[in-house]
């Protein structure tokens, strides 16, 4: 056995679910930002919206890595920014989401999570729908692929 083979046999096996990559951080930040934009769209944020965001993140192998505390802190901090300076917070959140342009699968997951947050408080109102449509346009996600264009879906609103 060569020294290289010996070294390779001693390396610990790394579980990909235990790795944090810059892409995963971008996905976390964009998901939280999109959820905050949608939660703020109707003028108030409900505990159900925050819970739904966390539940969706727990179901994502990439985002589950972060647990519940980090996304909660980010979500709360962004919502405080919305309360103090709406325009600045909105611009910051949109810029954060926009970092996912060109990553269609991740962008679609972010949009799906935002839709789930919109529905978490019992409805998918017009302001939330408009925000999700804006996110779809920003990320080049077809709104029909997340059920936003067909009558009777996501609140029954159509374009």
Give your account of this protein's structure.
The protein is mostly helical and 159 residues long. The chain is built from eight helices and no strands. The chain has helices spanning 3-10, 22-41, 47-58, 61-64, 69-84, 86-98, 104-120, 126-139. α2 crosses α5, α2 crosses α6 (86-98) and α5 (69-84) crosses α6. It is globular, with a radius of gyration of 18 Å. The chain starts with a helix and ends in a 20-residue tail after the last helix. The model is unreliable at 14-19 and 150-159 (pLDDT under 50).
Keywords:
disordered C terminus, mainly alpha, 159 residues, globular, 65% helix, 8 helices
Record the SSE blueprint.
Elements: H1 3-10, H2 22-41, H3 47-58, H4 61-64, H5 69-84, H6 86-98, H7 104-120, H8 126-139
Summarize the structure.
With 159 residues, this protein is mainly alpha-helical. Helix content is 65%, strand content 0%.
* Multimer state: single chain
The general outline is globular
Could you say which structural class the secondary elements and strand pairing correspond to? mainly alpha
Order of helices and strands: HHHHHHHH
Average pLDDT rating = 83
Into which percent range does the helicity of residues fall?
55-70%
Strand content: under 5%
User: Helix tally?
Assistant: 8
Secondary structure: number of strands: 0
Query: Low-confidence parts, pLDDT < 50 over ≥5 residues?
Result: 14-19, 150-159
The termini sit apart by: 67 Å
Biggest beta sheet summary? none
**Structural Rg:** 18 Å
């Amino acid at each position: 056995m060569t020294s290289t083979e010996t070294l390779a046999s001693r390396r610990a096996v790394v579980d990909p679910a235990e790795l944090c990559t810059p892409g995963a951080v971008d996905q976390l930040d964009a998901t939280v930002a999109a959820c905050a934009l949608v939660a703020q769209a109707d003028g108030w944020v409900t505990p159900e919206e925050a819970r739904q965001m966390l539940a969706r993140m727990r179901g994502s192998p990439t985002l589950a890595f972060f647990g519940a505390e980090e996304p909660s802190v980010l979500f709360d901090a962004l919502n405080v920014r919305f309360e103090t300076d709406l325009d600045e917070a909105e611009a910051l959140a949109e810029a954060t989401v926009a970092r996912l342009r060109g990553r269609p699968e991740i962008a679609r997951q972010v949009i799906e999570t935002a839709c789930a947050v919109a529905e978490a408080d019992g409805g998918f109102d017009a302001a939330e729908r408009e925000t999700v449509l804006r996110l779809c346009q920003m990320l080049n996600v077809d709104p029909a692929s997340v059920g936003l264009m067909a009558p009777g879906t996501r609140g029954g609103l159509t374009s």
